[in-house]
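Key result, reporting period 2: structure in, sequence out.
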């Protein structure tokens, strides 16, 4: 019951210290306000409102900004809806930028199989494929592994990017790849 709030990071991915991200919350709701919480505590950031969407910008991020964020839609003291939790991760980028490629191309007919590949010049890297608008990673991949999306439809349209990491004593992250737009006709 009740309205649901969707939440996602724009752009998605792990952020370097000093970088920025926007937490987007949207809801088909009325007569209320969006409030951002981190780990159960209210964050005093006012959103920029765009129709049914609230955008909370976090700039010049530090380790102190890491954690799980969620949105509440409130009317006074009453919480009308709350979103899932989106994780903000902050790490130095120590690895180069990976390359995201798509076959047969950026613009495909519905029903086509689409192949994504994220490649980084590092033998032991794991990679993450992001689709903007998702609350979590779209897919975990090995470096250079081909990921097949079978029989795509309009729901797979959007902005894809990838990012890679190497797990040593700690995680080392790459920058985020250039964004690739997939259109399904």
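The corresponding designed sequence is given below.
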């Amino acid at each position: 019951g009740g309205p649901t709030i969707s939440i996602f990071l724009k752009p998605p991915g792990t952020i370097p210290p000093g970088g920025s991200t926007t937490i987007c919350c949207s809801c088909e709701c009325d007569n209320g306000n969006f409030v951002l919480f981190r780990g159960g505590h209210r964050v005093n950031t006012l959103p920029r409102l765009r129709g049914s969407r609230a955008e909370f910008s976090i700039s010049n991020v530090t380790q102190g900004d890491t954690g799980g964020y969620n949105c509440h839609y409130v009317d006074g003291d009453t919480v009308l809806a709350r979103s899932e939790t989106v994780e903000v991760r902050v790490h130095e980028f120590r690895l180069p930028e990976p390359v995201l490629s798509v076959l047969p191309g950026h613009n495909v007919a519905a029903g086509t199989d689409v192949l994504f590949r994220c490649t980084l010049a590092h033998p032991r890297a794991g990679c993450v494929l992001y689709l903007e608008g998702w609350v979590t990673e779209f897919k975990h991949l090995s470096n250079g592994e081909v990921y097949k999306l079978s029989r795509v439809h309009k729901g797979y349209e959007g902005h894809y990017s990838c990012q890679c990491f190497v797990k040593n004593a700690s995680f080392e992250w790459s920058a985020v790849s250039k964004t690739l737009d997939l259109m399904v006709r």
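The mean pLDDT is 93. The CA atoms of residues 98 and 120 lie 5 Å apart. This case is discussed further under Risks and Mitigation.
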